[in-house]
Design goal:
The protein has about 210 residues and is of the alpha/beta class. It is built from seven helices and eight strands, in the order E-E-H-H-E-H-E-H-E-H-E-E-E-H-H. Keywords: Amino-acid biosynthesis, Branched-chain amino acid biosynthesis, Leucine biosynthesis, Lyase.
Length: about 210
């Protein structure tokens, strides 16, 4: 994954509550398992009609916010089924951070595993940030310093688990994290296993 250390971007504001994973990534696309190109399906049914024609008015299709890397959302964002493709689609569209009052628990976990930062803030603060987003203000999130600013004014300190922060800033997935924490023990086990049962590792062609 691409490391995430800092985001400087406008933010798109989607205040609707309980935007579930079927809205983010409709179920009929679930057989698409290749991450490449999934961004085109993000919020598909909010952006296109049955004939594939663009539906005007969706915030991520507004030229002012088409390149936004930050999405400010309503309460309960990512609720519903556990489909990981919802996060893949967001990331494929360029979203690297979602800010909301609350998230679907599994969705938030999938975000951490796939390079998307989630920030939970009170509803009143979300509304303030949404207004700033609509004014096209510049948002800056720094994971190394754990800070969040809008136009240079501090919004909050980032309160996220250190393990999650390390995964994001290093571009790690769960396997990378396991190798960091247990790599030496895994190597030691493999050496001991080879020494104890060397015939398992002999070339059968010999």
């Amino acid at each position: 994954m691409t490391p995430l250390t800092r985001i400087t971007s406008r933010a798109a504001f989607l205040p609707e509550e309980n935007v579930d994973t079927d809205i983010i990534f409709p179920a009929r696309f679930l057989l698409l398992m290749d991450r490449d190109g999934l961004g085109r399906y993000a919020f598909h049914d909010r952006r296109f009609d049955r004939d594939g024609n663009a539906i005007p008015g969706f915030v991520l299709d507004d030229p002012e916010f088409a390149d936004a890397k930050i999405l400010i959302a309503g309460d309960g964002f990512g609720c519903g089924s556990s489909r990981e493709q919802a996060v893949w689609a967001l990331a494929g569209h360029g979203i690297r951070c979602v800010i909301a009052p609350s998230f679907g628990e599994i969705f938030a976990g999938n975000c951490a595993k796939n390079g998307v930062l989630t920030i939970t803030l009170p509803q009143a603060q979300i509304e303030t940030l949404g207004a700033l987003a609509q004014e096209k203000k510049s948002f800056e999130i720094d994971l190394e310093r754990r800070t969040f600013h809008v136009e240079g004014d501090k919004v909050a300190d980032l309160d996220l688990p250190e393990t999650e922060r390390q995964m994001l800033v290093n571009g790690w997935d769960e396997t990378d994290l396991l190798l960091r924490d247990e790599g030496a023990a895994i190597d030691a086990f493999e050496r001991a296993h080879r020494d104890a049962q060397p015939w398992l590792f002999e070339d059968p062609a010999r």
